[in-house]
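U., I forgot to send this yesterday:
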Amino acid sequence: MVIRREQLLTEAGSQVQQMRHLLECAWPAVLDAARQPFRSVTWTAALAVVTGRGRQKPCLRIVRNVFAALTDRTGVSAQRPGALERIALLMETGSGPEVAGNPTGAWQTTG
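Result:
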């Protein structure tokens, strides 16, 4: 169990180094967008949006509405963290419902 944990930590560190090297060369300004970019959930999410959509900007109206929905009290709030965790897993594995603009049903994710 300890060996597997060490392997995962080594792989994660290696991935961060690879991303940092790529970004330092190709897009250094993005590394200055957050004080500790690879520890920032917001920076990582923004980068995932950019890499998943290419040069196309996300619709800011939708982004604002999603964040505003965080304060909405409808639904079973005790279930929300678990539901969001499950949704994140579905998005990672590429299995999800058919959505507009995505007729295959696969989520648009980055590797």
